Amino acid sequence: MIDLAGLSTLVPKALEAGTPAVLVTIIRALGSTPREAGAAMLVTPSQFAGTIGGGRLEFDAIERARAMLVSGETEAVMDVPLGPEIGQCCGGRVELSLRRANEALLSELETLEAREKAERPLALIFGAGHTGRALAAALALLPVRVRLVDSRPETLVGLPEAVETAAAALPEAEVAAAPAGTAFVVMTHAHSLDFLIAAAALARGDAAYVGMIGSATKRERFRRYLVEEGRDADVARLTLPIGGAALHDKRPEVIAALTVAELAVCLLSDQQEKLIDRFAARNGRCHSDGVRSTG
Fold first, then answer.
1. pLDDT tens-digit profile of 224-272?
2. Domain tally for the chain?
3. By three-state DSSP, how is residue 22 classified?
4. Which domain holds residue 107?
5. Does 284 reside within a domain?
């Protein structure tokens, strides 16, 4: 799948303005490479947007794309070994597709974008306080569907366009309606509500991540809450505190940045064991359907 990164909006703008452009896409990546298959950039006579990894690889691809704009070529392929010949030491090899921007390409990109958006994993954030809003804004930059839930409508304004919002009197209904593989992040204005939502998310058994803002004391209180419900084993699948405990910085933006890193590992790759390895000394886990660790 092509990493559109805004390119689907730039192609129609280029066509409307009559600016010739070439879409450069990595169609195959072997060994160690700076970007994966699907990474793309759009090249015009004077500018470019997106990236296929930078360095000499990108420079040569831009040069080849601009040569196409001069010659009138509509399609080309580049097979590039990433070695000393081009001053890069990655050691891998990439194959690039270069295609002149036209209406057919635009239609293809629009179809791909719609499919990509439909397949994005969901991060469901409960609580639109300072940290919840900071987390939603940070996640909105990633290929993740972001939904921010709070019972107070006034807290759900002024957010990035990509952030969905829900003023929900019964947030547990949002938990029930979420698709499998959702990441649930809980940080409401009340501990009792946090416990209710987190317990509901853990009970599903198919979440990619369940995290809660708080401290060791809060974690112990939540464990006791689950014990009373006969579900004390569920606490092993909870990440609390979110964002890790190594950096003792309580600024909302810092907590958001650290939490985004956790969520990205759980939601954007098939390498969930990385989070487990990194945070084995504490209790952070990715988990879902037995594919991610459940303990």
1. 888 888 777 677 788 888 987 677 788 999 999 999 999 998 888 754 3
2. 2
3. strand
4. 7-117
5. no
